[in-house]
Amino acid sequence: MNEIQQLLGDNLEVYISGFVVLGGILTYFFKSKKQKQISTDIPTEAQAAVKVPAELVVPKISWSQRLTLGLDKSRSEVWGKIGNLFAGEKPSLDEIEEVLYTADLPTGMVQELISRLEKEGKGKKPEEIQSLVYLFMKEKMEPVQKTEKDLSPIKSTKVIMIVGVNGAGKTTTIGKLATKLKAEGNKVIVGACDTFRAAAVDQLQVWCERAGVEMVRAKDGADPSGVAYGTVAKGVSGNYDYCLIDTAGRLHTNQNLMDELTKTKKVMAKIDATAPSEVLLVLDAITGQNALKQAQEFHKALQLTGIIFTKCDGSAKAGSAVGIVDQLQVPIKYIGVGESVDDLHKFDLDLYLKTLVGIETA
Ligand SMILES: Nc1nc2c(ncn2[C@@H]2O[C@H](COP(=O)(O)OP(=O)(O)OP(=O)(O)O)[C@@H](O)[C@H]2O)c(=O)[nH]1
Ligand SMILES: [Mg+2]
Fold first, then answer.
1. Which pairing describes strands 344-346 and 188-192: parallel, antiparallel, or unpaired?
2. Ligand 2 centre and the CA of 194: distance in Å?
C-alpha cells in the first residue's frame, strides 16, 4: 500500500475520485439503457398504472375458464341461486325478487321473470328452473345480439371510436384491443384524443408500446377532434387495418362535452364518409341499471353501434346487461372480466348466459 501511495504520490485521492465518478457514469448508462427498452419519456407511475404484463398476451387459462372466474360473484350471489329458491313446496318469491333487484334487473323484467317461473317452473327441479332462467334471458338478448356485426372482415381502414363516462375502462380496453388486433397480424394505429390529461396519454402510450402499435399524440390541451382527424388521416393514407380512437371520459349530463364528442365523430367522416364504422360505449358493470341513462344519452348523441361491458368480475351486477341490451337495443360486442389482455373477449351470448346461470357448457 505504501509503495502504491509513493508511486501515485499526492494524486491518490484524485485517482480514487476519478474511479468513483467513472463507476457512477457507467451505472447510470446501463440503468437508463434498460429503462429505454420500455419507454423513453413515460413517467414510471404511468407504466406502473398499466398493470398488465406483456407476457399475459399468451393465455394461461382458456377464455371460458376466465369467464367462469369473472362471473363467479354474479353466479353465486344471484343467477345460480334462483333454481334452489324457487324449487320445492313454497317458492321464496320475495327472496328471488330481492336477489334480482340487487343484480340490477329492471323492475318490469323482474316481474316478468317471476311470473314466467310461476307459470312454467312449478314442481320442477332446480336445474330445470335454471334452464328456464337461461331461456328467459336469451329470449331478451338474442334479437338484439343478432344485429351485431363482426369487427372484421375489413375492406378499408376500420375506425373504432371508444366513448364512455370517466373510469369505465376505455383506455384499458383500447390497450387490450390494440394488442389483440396486432397479434392477429393487423396494422393498428391509435389516436390519443384524451388531451385533457397528460397521464391519460402516457397510460395509452404504455399500452401501445407494449403492443407494438403506433400512437398519435398531440400537445396537452390540444383539440381532441384534431387528434382524431390526424389519426384517421394517417390511418387511411398508411393503409392501416384498424384505427382506434380513445376519448376522454365524460358525464352524459355535460352537454358541452357531449357536443365535443359529436364534433369529433363528424370530423373523422370528412376523411372517410364511413368513419367511424364503430362507436362503442364502454359500460362498467358495477354501474348496473344506472348505466342505462348514460347509455341512452351517448346513443342519442353518437348512434352507438355496440357496447363493451367491462368489470364484470367482482360485481354481482354482471347480469344487468340483460336489461340494458333489451332497453337500449344495442348489442354487446366485447366483455371484460379483469385487467389483463386476455380478460377482454368477443361477447358470446350463449356462453355468457350459461356461465352466469351455472349451466354446463360444452
Ligand atoms: N377488474 C377490472 N378492472 C378493469 C376492467 N377494465 C378496466 N379496468 C380497470 O379500471 C380502471 C380504469 O380504467 P381506464 O381504462 O383508465 O378507464 P377510462 O375509461 O379510460 O378512464 P378515463 O380516461 O379516466 O375516463 C383501471 O384501473 C383498469 O385497470 C375489467 O374488466 N375488470
Ligand atoms: Mg382513459
1. unpaired
2. 7
Cell 389483440, residue?
180
The CB-based long-range contact list for 174-177 (8 Å cut-off, 24+ gap) reads: 174/204, 174/207, 174/244, 174/246, 175/50, 175/52, 175/204, 175/206, 175/207, 175/208, 175/210, 175/211, 175/341, 176/52, 176/207, 176/336, 176/341, 176/343, 176/344, 177/244, 177/334, 177/344
What is the mean pLDDT, run by run of 10 residues, along the chain of 362 residues? 48 48 46 39 55 52 92 92 88 90 90 94 93 95 87 75 96 96 96 90 94 91 92 95 96 93 96 93 89 92 96 87 92 95 95 92 72
What are 89-94's contacts with CB under 8 Å, separation 24+?
91/117, 91/118, 91/121, 93/118
pTM of this prediction? 0.80
Where are the strands (E) in 82-205, listed by range?
158-163, 188-192
Q: Is 172 exposed, middle or buried (0-12, 13-18, 19+ CB in 10 A)?
A: buried
Identify which of 52, 67, 71, 172 to mutate to test ligand 1's pocket (most ligand atoms within 8 A of the CB).
172
Counting ligands in written order, the one closest to the CA of 70 is 1
